[in-house]
Amino acid sequence: MLNLTYSYRIYPEVDQEAQMLDWLEQCRRVYNYALAERKDWINSRKCPVNACSIRQEYIILADAPYPDYYKQQNALTKAKGVIPELKAVHSQVLQDALKRLDKSFKFMQERGFGFPRFKKLGQYRSFVFPQFKSNPVNGFEIKLPKIGAMPIKLHRPIPEGFEVKQVRILFKASGWYAQLILQADVSIPDVTPHGEPIGIDLGLEKFLTVSTGELVERPRFFVDLQSKLRWLQRKLRNKKKGSANYRKIQAKIRKLHEHIHNVRREFHFLTAHKLCDGVGMIFAEDLNLKMTSRGMLAKYCLDAAWGSFLEILKWVAWKRGVYFAKVDPNGTSQTCPQCGAHTGKKELSERVHHCDECGYVTDRDVAAAQVVEQRGLASTEQCRSVAVGQTVILPVEEGCLGTPMKQEISRAILGSPRSTRFG
Predict the structure, then answer these.
(1) DSSP line for 390-420
(2) Tell me, what's the pLDDT at 43?
(3) Is this structure's pTM higher than 0.85?
């Protein structure tokens, strides 16, 4: 089963836009009420038996069950009989708000941190129609339950063989968007190692360094527009909160943040496609992104968005039939790619790799990228040797899991890769 998400611009009428904004507000209220209910239940179980607070205490029975998703869903049905505003919203849309909260709690339990927060006014920006009986897209219109038909800009056609399973309506600073979740009963095999390999090294001096010696400059998406953002925020501070001018400045700030996000994402896609040209394997470092987002260089690391780029590169590589894998990043800048000797720790100001054992001299980032490539090839060779030991020999260049068939299926479903070129 293959799932895709296509995003299209939609143009609702004035009454439809007011209705969708009201739906977002009702979903936000349901989300916050359900979160407060769970939070009160959890806090009521934190007080020690012999040391209750003398200021306040939660009046919740000891045998009261935990308000999970199913209990809150049943309570939502009863609340519709009391609150008339909830009846105007599609029932599955409100249920999705509770499901989103339940996913947040499960994600918090897996990570061990990140307690869900209350949504302020304007922070709840999307709602989902989880299922459709028929295709809601008809020509250049999309028909949504209880909202009606509205124009949609199909800048690319929906692939043949795919059905629209869900629709997410998203409100951005630039307008309204419909994200179609498409599904098809197609099985595409994983990509196996083949072709020419390359290793990449991510950094701040250069955004990306390839093992072949190619360097990609790091565009400063946020840093270049930070002065304009600071100017807008200074104007916002001098406006009366809630006034018309206050909301206008807020809209400009949101548009600027969206512009930065779009430019960064486009650069990541173009760079990923450029890396996939003429290669069969790409290896990257498995970076600890949580640590890079701390310290005095956190702003520049977050501006480069390495984690987002690696996810995009993984998707583009899968789409174009290129094998992608991550390797251990420890010691890549302290190892000589020519002889494998340990060259010692380098300061950030030291940009040249020089090996005392073999005399190999090259750029520091190029040497690190070459080490990443060598580690990636070693891991693929180890996987092949394990497969041979288990008498399961997978062909590398061609065969049932080879890249030619993978590329044909990918091109038929997703289309040919777009033109890529660095500006």
Answers:
(1) TT-PPPSSSSTT-HHHHHHHHHHHH-SPPP-
(2) 85
(3) no
